[in-house]
Design a protein that fits this description.
By secondary structure, the chain is mainly α. It has 2 domains: 238 residues; 118 residues, abc type-2 transporter like fold (3-Layer(aba) Sandwich). The chain contains 14 helices and 4 strands. The protein has a 4-stranded mixed sheet, covered by helices on one side. Helix 3 links the parallel strand 1 and strand 2. Helix 2 packs antiparallel against helix 7 and helix 7 packs antiparallel against helix 11.
């Protein structure tokens, strides 16, 4: 039985990998989706990047700033901003972040002289767009500005002269109050960018390719009468189904292996500390996709039906299961729905292992659900298998 099944599987895999459409959707299209979805959902950084890229900040300020303005610029740079000085003629949409510093009051030579004389200087921050990124920029700029104001207040309170030497001396002093920040538990990071796009795209494409290329081959063989020829051989029905299952499963493993290597090499994907368990989970996912493909192939009459059902099923399950976006950001009802879908089982397991660091035991439920579903679908496939 195993020999006959392996014979069928090897021929099927060789045939599928010779098809240009299969090569396109197995090796090329996932890379394009990695880049496209990863870029629009998380920026240009790779998922393993440890340091944040400095944010460009356009500054419109007076030519004569004095030491106080230089200290402000240094504080802003310390908040991970890269300053670019621009003129007053800069277009509003030319820079995503823009800080406008007013000119000194009439009669004062510099911004520093004007501020130290008690004149109010109102700084204006302009940021294109809204959301958490804008709020974070405002917080960082506020830290820089109010930190400098606090130093000025301390010097004035101590009766010290406000000058560059006084600021340097104050900043060099040991702080009476320090804040120690430590994680209270495991960091629950909602994945974004490539960290979300690569596992999600891989899960979606494994299902898509097996429900189209893998299942469609069985439909074509039935329509062309090739399966009727197998019926005249000593090969049993179970051997034929197992052979078809093994061939489709092998295609799924090729898909997963190529995606994991490409994600690591081209996008710096970090697969976490539990890589062996990630592989086990993906193996179970491929088994489920294979069983679903063989089951549906026994229900469809034409390859057009199989391709349509395969594409629609893959897209719907991917969207609802958290392959396109983190399921954690969706409403509660959608999270509940996603948790009841096979794509949700796979994605939840990937997040638990890769992003949340909850260890192998956290994915045992997902693995059990995928395996049980695979077995039930495989048994049903044997029973409904038809030669014509």
């Amino acid at each position: 039985m195993i020999y006959n099944a392996w014979f069928i599987a090897s021929r099927d895999l060789r045939h599928m990998l010779r098809q240009r459409e299969t090569i396109l959707w197995v090796f090329l299209m996932p890379l394009l989706f990695f880049f496209f979805i990863g870029t629009i959902t998380g920026g240009s950084q790779s998922p393993g990047a440890a340091e944040e890229t400095p944010k460009l900040l356009a500054v419109q300020g007076p030519e004569e700033g004095g030491f106080l303005l230089e200290e402000l610029y240094a504080a802003i740079r310390a908040q991970n901003f890269e300053i670019e000085f621009v003129g007053a003629d800069v277009l509003p949409d030319q820079f995503a972040r823009r800080l406008v510093i007013p000119e000194p009051e009439p009669g004062f030579a510099s911004f520093t002289d004007s501020v130290l004389a008690g004149n109010q200087a109102k700084l204006q921050f302009v940021r294109n767009g809204e959301g958490t990124g804008t709020n974070l920029d405002k917080v960082r700029l506020s830290r820089a500005i109010y930190g400098l104001l606090a130093d000025l207040a301390v010097l004035r309170a101590d009766g010290e002269e406000v000058n560059l030497a006084g600021l340097d001396t104050l900043q060099a002093q040991e702080r009476n109050l320090s804040l120690l920040v430590e994680p209270a538990g495991k960091r629950q990071i909602i994945p974004s960018g490539y960290s979300q796009a690569i596992p999600g795209t891989m899960v979606m494409f494994t299902l898509l390719v097996l429900l189209t290329s893998g299942a469609t081959l069985l439909v074509i063989e039935r329509r062309r009468g090739l399966l009727r020829r197998l019926a005249a051989t000593p090969i049993s029905r179970s051997s034929i189904v197992l052979g078809k299952w093994m061939g489709t499963m092998a295609l799924g493993l090729v898909q997963i292996g190529a995606a994991m290597v490409a994600g690591r090499v081209f996008f710096g994907m970090d697969w976490g500390d539990d890589l062996p368990m990630v592989l086990v989970l993906l193996l179970c996912w491929a088994a489920f996709c294979t069983s679903a493909a063989i089951f549906l192939a026994n229900l469809m009459r034409t390859e057009q039906q199989m391709n349509s059902i395969g594409v629609i099923t893959s897209i719907v399950l991917a969207a609802l299961g958290g392959c396109w976006w983190p399921i954690e950001i969706t409403p509660a009802w959608m999270q509940t729905l996603g948790g009841s879908l096979p794509t949700g089982w796979a994605m939840n397991g990937m997040h638990q292992l890769i992003h949340f660091g909850n260890g192998p035991s956290s994915v045992l439920g997902s693995i059990a659900l995928l395996l049980v579903s695979s077995v039930l679908l495989s048994i049903a496939s044997v029973r409904i298998f038809r030669y014509q």
